[in-house]
Every structure is written in structure tokens, then in C-alpha cells.
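Hi R.,

Here's the chain you asked about this morning:
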Amino acid sequence: MADQTSAHEVISALNALYQGTNLEEREQANAWLEQFQKTTQAWTTADAMLGTPTLGLEAKLFAAQTLRNKIILGVSELGEQGALSLRDSMVGHLRGARGGAQALITQLCLGLADLAVQVGAWTDPFGDMAGMFLSDAQSVSCLLEFLAVLPEEFLNERVVVDGAYYSQRSEALLGQRAGDVIKLLVQCLQQPDLHGDAHTRVLVCFTSWLRHGDITLLMVQDTPLVALAFAALAEDGDVFDTA
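And the predicted structure, written out as C-alpha cells:
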């Protein structure tokens, strides 16, 4: 496969895979796409695809999944500055995805979380993301999704990091930020223009941090978080279903 794979070639292969009727051609397209994802060019092609406003959801999901897989398996290929540049680009893609398909938002947040776990040069993921995604309800939902998947990616066996680094990074990103996350969740539940989806994201995020052990029930007993969460449950049936 040539290094300079174009987005057009990827889209053509995706169309053959998802819309084709010939089984052999679909299998060939799938094999081609799997091989593409292993190339160095996949970094820039997938990034460019995510930045194309007219591209359909299936293609953007493939691009986001490609970047996430490459981050997990080979972020060292980028070097420190390259990884930070990719982070900035993915944050821009996430901002562009606000209010859109949740599947794409989740994939972008997973990729960003995997970057946060592995790239020590990203010193303050919580502060950076909170600074960019607290302006409106759609942005807050993206922030809460990122915070919900962050502890889960520390438990992702595919993300391989040194044991000492893992402990230090987990403490920096989760342990030292647990109090800030609690305050943020309370703020979200108290904000009158946030409801429905945002409340659901609050409960998912809270559960994720509880499961990882960085937030405990003891830590929230003197905060209004639990009472506000129950109020959200009573107010919105969808939130109740999530809980």
C-alpha cells in the first residue's frame, strides 16, 4: 500500500464495505482498510477526514476509531509534540461534533482519554478540557463523556504503560482531581439550563469514578451531589433508566 493514501481511497473502500453487494469485494475492502490502519499515513488521513464537514457519520466513525487504535498501539510514533498536536486537532473535532451523533463523540473522547493516559506532556487534561467545554449544554455533555471514559481507559488492558508511570499518572489525573470532578458534577446538576442528556452524563461519570475508586461515597457525603442526583432521577425518566 502506498504511503500517500488519500481520504478518497478510504471512503471508496468504506462504501464498498458497507454498501457493496459482492461478498468478495467487501472482504477485499475490509482487508484493505485493516492494512491502511497500520500505515503511518493513517494518522494524517484520518485526522483530515474528521475535519471534513461534508463527510458522513460512518466515515468519521472509522476515522475516529482509526486514530484511537493508533494512539493505543503506537502513539510513540508521533513524538511528544506530535502527540500534543494531535490532541489539539482531536479537541477541535470534538467541538465540531457537539450536538451530533453520540457514537462519534464517544470515540473522540476515548481517543483523547487514551492520549491523556499515555502522554505525560499533557499535564492537565481535566483543566484543559474543562476550560474548553463548559460554555453550553452540548459542550458540557462532551466534557462529561470525556471524564466518564477517562478512568475506564486506565483499566483498558490494551493501553500498555510502565507500572510506575501508571501509578503516577493515575494519581495525577484521577486521584488529585477527584475533588474537582465532584464540584463539577454538583455544578452541572445545579445549572438550570442543563437537564436530560447532561444529567445522564453526570450519573455515568459519577459511576465511572466510583467504580475506579477515585471518588468514594465518603467523599460526597457532605456535598449536595447525591441529593441532586436523586432529584434528577425523579425529574427525568431517561436519567432514571440510566441509573
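The chain has a mean pLDDT of 91.

Let me know if you need anything else.
M.
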